[in-house]
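Human: Here is a favour to ask of a fellow structure person. Comparing notes only helps if you start from a blank page. I am asking you to supply a protein in sequence and structure-token form. Write it directly below this note and I will take it from there.

Assistant:
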Amino acid sequence: MDMEFNMNDMRDFLEREAALINRPEFIADDPVQFPRRFESLADIEITALLASAIAWGNRKMICRDADRMLALMDHQPYKYMMDRGYEDLDPDMNIHRTFFARNLVNFLSGLRRIYERYASLADFARANNVGDATAPAWRLVELVNAELDAVCEGGVHDSRCLPGNLDNTALKRVNMALRWLVRDDGIVDMGVWKGVIDPSRLYIPLDVHVGNTARSLGLLERRGNDRRAVEQLTEVLRQMRPADPVYYDYALFGIGVTGKSLG
């Protein structure tokens, strides 16, 4: 086979696999269900960041703990944040695995600084030209981290909220949250960030399974699951779907692990 035929064949395969997962039925067992519960943009954004922040490990546990986290906020995340309801939390209360209430406090305190000045995180991203950055996801995290670090004790970065090693991190969870917020095909992803980041500039949410699947398919050569691997894999996917490369996240995620775990 020549390379063109191979690429077309792979595109067709990924399209079929993605269509099996990108269905309304997927929502009920995925963390995307939580931001989808809300109508206001601020509630959607805050919930997307918090639910994605704890999206590692067993999928049922992730969803259970995200539900409990929203219950702590009386299912009104924006109001809870702006009213500083988090100040009453026991810092040692466990939220999910190694994410504790102290981390939630840091996250909400930092986000509050943004929402004091902007009506939404989307407006914050627009004002800082995030969509024009070479790597919008990493630029957004850099900007949000500056707000989080300003409220953390001693200015010490809380990596349980968002990664700090931006030169190396794959930003898996943030890239997943941005997929939810930016992609808009009316099925699973919400597409509420109109004109903030073009879908063509999103990056694949890379975890161990997605990386291994991509390597087994010959889509990725790099062995580590780091930022460079994300960039390499996404560039290959862009060749097959230039306007919407992360659509294939559904295919790479779904092959072999449907309903089992998130990395």
